[in-house]
Amino acid sequence: MTTDSLLDVWRLALVTAVEVGGPFVAAALAVGLIASLLMAATQLQEGALSFVPKVAALALVLLLMGPWLLGRLTRFTRATAERIVEVGHGGRR
User: Where along the chain do its domains lie?
Assistant: First the structure.
């Protein structure tokens, strides 16, 4: 395996991690910001008021985007496995 192909696998792993984790982070950030604004406006300081909506938002993201996320992880795993097999064969097929 050359340095370029190893760096390509590493780049693909990082891109996949961002693509899979990004929707969860964005949803938690948006819901947390809205909950914080509401808590500041109403002067309520209860931890559950920010935690429960975040969990619900993450569950909704998983429900709506789960098949796509799983497909993306599956494609990455298959591509990486194919490269491992390629290295095992010495680069020839």
Answer: 3-84
